[in-house]
Amino acid sequence: MADAVRVYHWESLPREEVRPGVTRTAFRGANAMMVMNWLEPGMEKRPHSHPFEQLAFVVSGRVRFEIGESVVECGPGDVVRIPPDVVHCGEALGSEVALNLDVFAPLREDYLHLTAYQEPDFG
User: Fold this and answer.
1) How many domains does the chain have?
2) CATH number (domain holding residue 110)
3) What is the pLDDT of residues 26-77, one digit of tens each?
4) Does residue 97 lie within any of the structural domains?
5) CA–CA distance from 24 to each of 2, 98, 115 (Å)?
6) Is residue 3 a part of any domain in this protein?
7) Within a domain: residue 112?
8) How many alpha carbons fall within 13 Å on the CB side of residue 69?
9) Could you tell me the CA-to-CA distances from 83 to 17, 56, 66, 110, 113 in Å, in that order?
10) What is the pTM of this model?
11) Which domain holds residue 49?
12) Cys-Cys with 92: which of 7, 30, 68, 98 at CB 3.0–4.6 Å?
């Protein structure tokens, strides 16, 4: 018999405050992870890099991404790739909270604490 399939809803998952104006939660599989970010207008940008490939999808609002030497503005439905080890950051534009879904591969061990609620899914 197969294990029970569980369905989760982003709004009901535990959130972590990264810094003022930025909160996030995550959902993972065995080899990849999705991280939902709530970016508030006026949030502080923090350029960084990591060894993970990142696919960013803007769900709502507008986000300005700085990726290496490029600057792009994205709105609902837009997707952008951030290669591994490239310095990047994002910030909310306008007056509404932006919802940005990031997909990381491989799985980010440093974000596993965000998915502790899923421990029963992986036995």
Assistant:
1) 1
2) 2.60.120.10
3) 999 999 999 999 999 999 999 999 999 999 999 999 999 999 999 999 999 9
4) yes
5) 31, 12, 11
6) no
7) yes
8) 0
9) 25, 11, 12, 18, 24
10) 0.92
11) 16-117
12) 98
